[in-house]
Amino acid sequence: MPHMPRLGSGIPLVARGRELRALRAAYTAAAGGQAAAVLLSGDAGVGKTRMTEELARIAREDGALVLTGRCLDSGETGLPYLPVVEALGPVRERAGSRAALARLFGDWVELGLPDPGLDSAATGAPRTEQDLNQLQLFDAVHALLAELACERPVVLILEDLHWADASTRRLVSFLLSRLRTQALLVLGTYRADDLHRRHPLRPLLAELLRLPAVERLDMAPFSRADARAFVSALSEGGLADAAVRELAERSDGNAFFAEELLAAYSDCAEQSDALPATLVDVLLARIERLGPQAQNVVRLASVGGRRVADSRLRAVAEMDAGLDAGLREAVQHNVLVPEDGDVYTFRHALLREAVYHDLLPGERVRLHAAYARELSSRMGEPGVAAALAHHSMESHALTVALRASLEAASEAERLGAPAEALEHLERALKIWAAVPVAERPSESNSRLLERASFVAGTSGEPERAIAYAKAAVAAIDPVAEPEQAAHVRRRLAQALYATDGREQEARTVIEEALALVADRPGVPVTAWVHAAYATILRGLGQPEDAAAHAREAVTQARAMSVGGAEADALITLAMLDESRGETEASRAGLRTAMALANSVGAPTVEIRARFTLAVNQYDHGDLADAVRTLDEGVARASEVGLTWSTYGLELRALQMVTRYTNGDWDAAEASSEPGHRVSHVVWGRLAMLGAMISVARGRFAEVDRVLADYRSDDHRATPTPIVAGMVAAELAQWRGKPERALEHLRATLAWATVSWEMVSIRLAALALSSAADLAHAAATRRDDDATGAIAAEAAELLDLARKTAGSVVPRTGVLGPEGRAWLARAEAEHSRLTGADPDLWRRAVDAFGYGAVYEQALCRWRLAEACLLTDDRAGAAEALRLADEVATTLGAKPLREALRRMARRARITLDPDATPRERIDLFTPRERAVLALVAQGRTNRQVGDELFISEKTVSVHLSRIMAKLGATRRAEAVAVAYDRGLLERAE
C-alpha cells in the first residue's frame, strides 16, 4: 500500500477545474490592474484550503506577493483583527511608519505571531495608552495594500471568515468596497455549513456580494463519480475498486472526510473491518494510534484552540523532554502542523474539536486550569484577559473568570469592538451571583447591568439594552441610592425612547427619575434627567414643556459644568427652533452642541447632534450638505465605537436614504448590511433600505428573500414596515401586478396614517400609480364597474395626499421639497386615469429636481408617455433620453427596459450622441426603406419588386410618409426628408 499524500499541496485537484479556472481568472484580472475579490465557500473539509494553496502557488510563481491570515475559532477569543495582523506580518516593516498599523502590531506581539519589532518608541506612546482609531486603521491597511500592489500583484488570503470577529468583518467590508484599479486580489474562505440563519457573517456576505468586484465561488461536495475519482487519485491507484467505492460513499463527497477515511484504511489495511463508522471515530482512532506522550500533547493543544504557540504549550505542559518527543510524533503523523512563529495548528478544525470533546470532564477542567495559570501571570498584556476569562470559566475558577471578563470587556471597548465587549460582560453577569460577595470586584451589579445596557445599545441590540437597563433599575434601592436610581432610570428611558413605539413608557420612567432628583438640583444627574425628559416630550409633541425642561437642563448643567447634559439639551432646543421655521438658528445651535459635546468627551451626544443636523439639511433639500454631515458622522461614530448606537444606526440609515436619493447607489448598498451580529430589528431596518435599491436594479429574487426573512411583528413601531410595503409594491409593479402592488400600499397606508403621517403623501402617490395602471386595464376590458371603483379610490388617495400636505405639521414646520415633490407626483399620477397631463408631469419632474435623481427619472418616463399621447414627440424624446441616462448610470434595469420599450414603440432613438432630429424617427422601418428607394429614383413598381411588396402597398406607405412630412408629392417628400436630416444622401 503506497504512502497516502496528505491534505495540502500534494492532494489531487480532482473535479475542481471550474473553481481553479475562476480563481486563475480573478488573479489574472487583478494582476492586470482590475482589483477583485473571491469569497470561496464550502462545507468543512471540502477542499477550500487546497484551493487557496494552489492559487498561492500560481501567484508566487508569477512573482506576486501572497499574504495569508487565518481567523480563530471559539476556543480562544481575544483581540480583534487577528487574521489581518497575521497576513501583514511579512510586510510589517513597511507598516511601521503608519501609526495605526504600528499600534495594531504592538498590541499583538504576544499572540504567537511573528514579532513585528515595534515598541512604544515606534508607536509614539506606550501600548497600554494606545487608542486604536478604527477608521484610521482601516485606511492604513488599505493604503499599505495599495502601496504594495503598485510594486507587484498582491494576493490577500483570509481563511475561515466564519470565525471572524466583528471588527475584522468590518475591515473586510471596508477593503472590498474600495477595490478599484489596484493589482490586488482578496480571497476569503468560509464554511457554508456553519452559516446558520443568524450567523453574523451572513449579512456581511449579502453586503459584499452586491459589490461589482466581488464574486462568490461555491465548492460543492463531490458527486459520487467525482468522489470515486478523487479517492482513486489520492490513493495513487493502490486500492481495489470496492474499497474506492466504499471510501467515496463514506466520505459523502467531502475531500477531508475522504482523506481521513483513506488514511485510516491505509494504517489498518490488513483489517478491513477496522474502518470507523463515523468521521469522529476515524479522527479519534488516528489520535489513539499515537504514543502516550503525543496523545497528551494533542489533548493539551486542543484545549488551547485551533492554533497554539509553542511557548504556551511549554508553559502549561506537565512534561519536560516528553513534550518535544510528543510534538515530533504529532507533527510526523500530520496531526499538528508547524507554522512560522513557533505556532502549531491542528490540520483541520474538526480534528481539534473531536479531540477536545473526547476529553474526560475532569481532564478538560484540569487542562483549562493549566492554561489559566499560565495566562494569569501575563495579565495586562493585550488579549490575555479574554483568553484567561475563557479558560477560567471552563475550569470553574469563577472569581478569576469574573475579573478577567470585566477586563476583557474594557479592553474590547477601548478597541472600539462593542460586540466583543458585550459577550464578555454577559459572561460576567452570568457568573456574578456564583462568586462570593467578598471576592467580587468593586463594581456593583447595578453598574454592571447598566454598562451591559449601554454596550448592547452601541452594538445594535436595542432589545437587550432595554432588558439590561430594566434589570439595573430592579437591582438598585431608590431610597438608599436615589441619585444612582435616577441615573439607571434615565438610561432605561433613553433605551426605551430609542425603540419606536415605546415613547410613553419612556416618559413614565423618566418621570420616576425626575421625582427622585426633584429636590436635588445640585447633582449632575439632575441636569441629565431634565435633558432626557426634554427629548422625550419633544418627541411626544409637547414643545412648550420640552423647551422648559431643556432650558432647566442647560441652567443646571452650566452651574455644575456638566457639558454633556448641556449639549444634549441644546440639541432639543435647536430642534424646536427648526419646527418654528428658524432654520439657521437651529443649525447654529446644533453646531454649538456638537462642538461642546466633542470638547467634553460626550460622544453619544455628539453623534446625536450630527444626526439631527443631517436630518435638518435633508429635510430642507440640502442634499450635498447632508451627505457631508452624514459621512463625517458615520466616520466619527465608527471612530468612537458608536456605529450601532441609537444615533449611530440612525446616521447610517439616513446616509443610505440620502445616497439612494442622490443616486449614489453603490455606496448605499455597501452600507445596507451590518457585517456584524445585530438584532433582527436592526437587520430589518438596513436590509429593507438596501432592498429599495435591489428592486430598482431588478434583482427580484434577492428582494423576495429579504421580504421572506422580514417579520413585520418585530418592527411594529419602526419605519421599516413602511419601507417594506413600498418595496413589495414596487416589486409587484415591475412584475406587472398593479393589483398586488395596490394591496401592499393600502395596508401600508392604514398603518402609516396612525404612526407616520407625513409619509402618506408618498404612499398615496405610489398607490395612484398602481390605480392608474389598473384603470387602463379595466378600460381595455370595458369593465365600467371596475373603472368606476378605481376612480373613486384614486380620488380618495389624492384627497389624502392633499390633506396630509396641508394639515400635518412636519419636523421643519413647513412642507419640505421632498413632500412637495411627492404631492406633485400624486397630482400627476391621478391625471393618468383620464389620459395624462404633460404639464403636471413637468411640475413633478421639476419638483424632484432638488436631487432625487431616480424619482425624477421615473417622472420623466411618465412625462414621455404623456407627451406621446399629446403628439409632442420632441418632448417625449428629450424626456426618454434624460431618463435613460439616469437609469443606465444607476443600473436601474427595470426602468431602463421600460424606457427602451416605449422608445421602440414610438420609434425614438435614445442615442445620446444623436442630434435632436435624429432622436425621433418618424418612419417605420418599412417606410424608411420605401423613402430611400424613392429618393434613388425608383418607381412604385420598382420599389415593390425590390422590397417584395405590391405596388399598392408602396403607394399606401408613400401616402403615410407624405402626411408625416406635410408634403403633397413624392419629390417634395424626399426633399423635406433631406432638409430635416431624416434621410441620408447616397454617396
From TrEMBL:
One of its GO terms (biological process) is regulation of DNA-templated transcription. Residues 916-981 form the HTH luxR-type domain. Keywords: ATP-binding, Nucleotide-binding. One of its GO terms (molecular function) is DNA binding. It holds the Pfam family GerE. The keyword Transmembrane helix does not apply. GO terms for cellular component: cytoplasm. The keyword Transferase does not apply. InterPro entries: AAA_16, P-loop_NTPase, Sig_transdc_resp-reg_C-effctor, TPR-like_helical_dom_sf, Tscrpt_reg_LuxR_C, WH-like_DNA-bd_sf. PROSITE patterns: HTH_LUXR_1, HTH_LUXR_2. CDD domains: LuxR_C_like. This is LuxR family transcriptional regulator.
